[in-house]
């Protein structure tokens, strides 16, 4: 069995695909594979905060490199944060959004049915059971999992071998930004201060976690 079997099978089903693109290493490989095996490729990125420069600059680089458009859509978890007031005041007029609502939206925008993502069996036990159940082609959910059988080692080797663009912000921050935890935000405050101020405009109370993290760090250093 070859690691390319999944994508080869998927490309027999359709010539058009949308990639769920987080700028994490698995979806970087997924996007590159899809570019090689499908005729029409689109992508979407779910943001926690719209228009962060460090993310936007990188998304633009991928768009230019592959000649594709990457849709920016709010992360479905935002609806929980906004409705119930996580890191901000609650607003019960905000409807709850699920991942399937995001899929429905991007399908409507692009006219493409199948969505490929970077989920892998090696990620966790939950992933293993989900992917073993669906296989690399989930007909019911119209999802493809091109790298489901890959391990981190192979993902890293592919990125290196094909000299794929790996976001500078991942290297600088040491993580790919997807939470409002104090530790992560403290790093953003240091390295991308303008973006940090923008995050606080949307989630003002996230500052508390950063201050707590900074205080703990200081007292630990003494
Ligand atoms: N923000 C965002 N925007 C678009 N697509 C996203 C996003 N977050 C996750 N994903 C897609 O899901 C793949 C697996 O991500 P994760 O392992 O982090 O798990 S999770 O789905 O977010 O729970 C993930 O692959 P990788 O992030 O490369 O592992 C993507 O294909």
Automatic annotation (TrEMBL):
Pfam families in alphabetical order: PAPS_reduct (PF01507)
Enzyme class: oxidoreductase
Cross-referenced InterPro entries: PAPS_reduct_dom, Rossmann-like_a/b/a_fold
EC number: 1.8.4.8
Database matches in Gene3D superfamilies: HUPs
Residue ranges annotated for the Phosphoadenosine phosphosulphate reductase domain, each copy included: 17-169
Annotated keywords: Oxidoreductase
Molecular function GO labels: phosphoadenylyl-sulfate reductase (thioredoxin) activity
Record's keyword annotation contains Nucleotide-binding: no
This protein's name: Phosphoadenosine phosphosulfate reductase
Provenance organism: Lactobacillus colini
């Amino acid at each position: 069995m070859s690691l390319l079997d999944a994508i080869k099978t998927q490309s027999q089903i359709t010539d058009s695909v949308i990639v769920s693109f987080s700028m994490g290493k698995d979806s970087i490989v997924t996007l590159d594979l899809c570019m090689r095996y499908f005729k029409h490729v689109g992508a979407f990125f779910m943001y926690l905060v719209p228009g962060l420069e460090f993310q936007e600059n990188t998304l633009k680089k991928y768009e230019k490199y592959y000649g594709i458009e990457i849709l920016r859509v709010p992360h479905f978890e935002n609806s929980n944060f906004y409705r119930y007031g996580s890191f901000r005041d609650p607003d019960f007029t905000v409807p709850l959004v699920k991942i399937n609502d995001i899929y429905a939206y991007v399908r409507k925008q692009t006219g493409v049915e199948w969505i490929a993502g970077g989920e892998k069996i090696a990620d966790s036990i939950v992933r293993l059971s989900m992917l073993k159940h669906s296989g690399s082609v989930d007909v019911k959910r119209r999802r493809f999992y091109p790298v489901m059988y890959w391990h981190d080692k192979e993902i890293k080797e592919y990125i290196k071998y094909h000299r794929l663009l790996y976001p500078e912000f991942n290297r600088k921050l040491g993580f790919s930004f997807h939470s409002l935890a104090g530790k992560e935000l403290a790093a953003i405050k240091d390295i991308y201060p303008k973006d940090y101020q923008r995050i606080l405009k949307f989630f003002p109370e996230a500052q508390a976690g950063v201050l707590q993290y900074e205080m703990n760090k200081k007292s630990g250093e003494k």
